[in-house]
Amino acid sequence: MGAVEGKVAFVTGAARGQGRSHAVRLAREGADIVAVDICAPIASISYPPSTPGDLAETARLVAAEGRRILARQVDVRDFDAMERVVRDGIGELGRLDIVIANAGIATSDSLLTCDPAVWREVIDIDLTGAFNTVLAGVRPMVDQGEGGSVVLISSMLGLRATAGVPAYTAAKHGLVGLMRSAAHELAPHRIRVNSVHPGNVRTAMIENEGMFRLFRPDLPAPTLADAAPGFASMNLLPDPWLEVTDITEAVLWLVAESGRYVTGVTLPVDLGATVK
Hints:
The protein is α/β, with parallel strands linked by helices. It contains 8 helices and 7 strands.
């Protein structure tokens, strides 16, 4: 029997990267999945966006685990659409037990040169999008009356700061406040709320030339290998980055019976970067 057998999980940003990893692993552990992703261009990011094909592949991988999935292109900034997909998911899959607010974008810019439009887009997706996810998910969980678990995927930059990422840092810090407030409010309903704080995870968010240039501005076209020592310099442990499965293991521990008494916690999975 899987760790979340018979549960239903709502996962945002599920088309690829961490979101896909969370969806597929929860399916392997017995959960059915409601998966959403924007699968469209986003003006402020410099790396390729997810695609409808990516989301279709997530759906295929979940189905290959023998679980049901409702996968839909939804923008987390659109609360009405988020509420609809949750309602449709419960109608098709029968219930909702787990919410994973994973969708997010990253930009890098000086505070002095940051375009206000970029600031708004990052805050709207990374913070307001997570609020929309939590609200759309927990209302029916409260009505269901059987408890549940919510995980917000923040960042090591939700617990510390560095120059060059003002909007991302503000949004990820904001998730901690949202998590703690929600943990207090939802505890009487036996709904646990926690945040996970990854370090640099090897996804499209860090595997792009713009990110490589932050570490190697001296090179005309730096590669991942060129940037690896810079990534490693951020960590206590001598590794440059984590894999998506490292974050998924923490998420699974929190949402399963293993985390039944854990709420209001900020959990770094970051190679020691937060405390360096």
